[in-house]
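Same chain as my last thread, 147 residues:
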Amino acid sequence: MTIDAYFLKPVLALVLWTLMMWIWMYALRLPAFAKYNINPDDARHPGTYGDKLPPHVRSAADNYNHLHEQPTIFYALMFFIALTGGNDNAAALAAWIYVGLRILHSFVQVLVGKVALRFLVFAAGTFCLFFLAIKEALRIFMMSSAL
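reply #2:
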């Protein structure tokens, strides 16, 4: 069985977005360190300098960290689906919606800062993961019980 590279494009897109957030985070953070006279050695522990930085600078770093949390489930699901042959249009659509919502989540967290709106975007993305996981569980367990 070959892995469908087209199906895995959302995975690559989210990896690229995560790297873009790294750039955005440091584009905000480095000038802020200089402006607020923060010694990088004093910032080696999360939260030790947070009160000195504007919320949007802290939010960019928080978002970068968030892109290493829940999306790990997305990555695992996508490779599981690709490896076991469950890659269909519904899964691909859910994957692209998830990636779009993660990107939207980044913009809401860094630029808007409204927690309620950010939670709604996060919850919508989480439902995409539930859809993918349940769809795959049904496919795999129903397929194995039919054998």
